[in-house]
Amino acid sequence: MTALDITGAKTAEAADVITGARERIDALDDRIIGLIQERVAVSAVVQDARIASGGRRVNLSREMEILAHYSEALGKPGTALAMTLLELCRGRI
After folding, report:
1. Based on the domain organization, do 27 and 50 belong to the same domain?
2. 65 is in which domain, residue-wise?
3. For the whole model, what pTM was predicted?
4. Same domain, yes or no, for 16 and 31?
5. Domain check: are 83 and 49 in the same one?
6. What is the three-class DSSP state of 89?
7. Residue pair 4/10 in contact by the 8 Å Cβ criterion
8. What's the rounded Cα separation, in Å, for the pair 63 and 83?
9. Pick from 93, 90, 92: which is nearest to 46 by CA?
10. What is the pLDDT of residues 20-72, one digit of tens each?
């Protein structure tokens, strides 16, 4: 299978651009996954401290702030992304 087949490009030049861009996307995805894993760990620290102090594990007003932040930055898809992040970071409720 050639680079043209793999990328769907019609020229070798376009295939080269697409291949390079995909490599960068893959590297960015790896960084994003690492950041999400870090966020999950930090969120667990916050939850543990809140519970240890007698509070609830989830702070809904804080979650609303996060949803608003993502929505303002990324629009409606940002809200969905924030919901997914919150779900990952909350663990099971």
Report:
1. yes
2. 58-88
3. 0.84
4. yes
5. no
6. helix
7. yes
8. 9
9. 90
10. 999 999 999 999 999 999 999 999 999 999 999 999 989 999 999 999 999 99
Find the length of the chain.
93
Tokens of 8: 């769907």
| Burial of residue 70, with CB atoms counted within 10 A of its CB: 0-12 exposed, 13-18 middle, 19 or more buried | buried
Burial class (CB in 10 A: 0-12, 13-18, 19+), 19: middle
- Backbone CA torsion sign across 88, 90, 91, 93: negative
How many whole angstroms separate alpha carbon 75 and alpha carbon 41? 26
Q: What is the DSSP string of 40-67?
A: HHHHHHHHHHHHHTT--S--HHHHHHHH
